[in-house]
Write a structure and sequence with these properties.
The chain is an alpha/beta fold and about 240 residues long. It has one domain: 3-Layer(aba) Sandwich (Carbamate kinase), CATH 3.40.1160.10. The protein is about 40% helix and about 20% strand. It is built from nine helices and eleven strands. A nine-stranded mixed β-sheet has the order 4-3-5-2-1-6-10-11-9, sandwiched between helices. α2 packs across α4 and α6 runs parallel beside α8. The longest helix has 25 residues. The radius of gyration is 17 Å and the shape is globular.
Length: about 240
Amino acid sequence: MADSKYKRVLLKLSGEAFKGGMSYGIDTPTITSIARQIKQVKDAGTSVAIVVGGGNIWRGSTAAKQGIDRVTADYAGMLATIINALALQGVLEREGVDTRTQTAITVQQVAEPFIRRRAIRHLEKGRVVIFAGGTGNPYMTTDTAAALRAIEIEAGVLLMAKNRVDGVYSADPLKNPEARKFDHLTHLEALNKRLKVMDATALSLCLENKLPIIVFDLEATGNMQRAIDGEAVGTLISSDN
């Protein structure tokens, strides 16, 4: 624990992270691998909170383009994140990790409502806390929820887990072999360059609160722990040049 640079972190998992190689849905071996990395970090003494997306099940913006009312579509997306949160909770607990799920919309039968002080208390007791339901508001992405929750629980860093991409690039490296990787960016540079790190609202929240972001490839085993230990993993986005 003494070697870790960050004592409390928030991990953002997109819905894409849950489907593995499948076209949609939840791939249990994939989330088992993710859960074991989370357990490694927690066992090393770092408090871990997680915000999950729901794009592997439902995308509100896509559904809205197909004619569904945007507010209704976004609430359906919030329910998708709760499904992912419960799946991850189940796997984490199977791996021996004490876990609590809190939601921004009320689903009392399966999860606690989000209460900041209770979430912090869970973390202090060594539990992993999963935040689902986004911010509870339509038109707000789970990236914004991740930035907001990280600030609320006083996390030292926001970890943005990516699939098959080991950081922030000037273009999509999966489509453009000429894309250049950035080892470090300031929040303002990421905003001005319009890099697809996260949405502008989330990035602006991190800028205003000087919350560092590390964008890294979660598929590389041990990357999460190395990032927390302060090693040069992925791309660091911070207020410092």
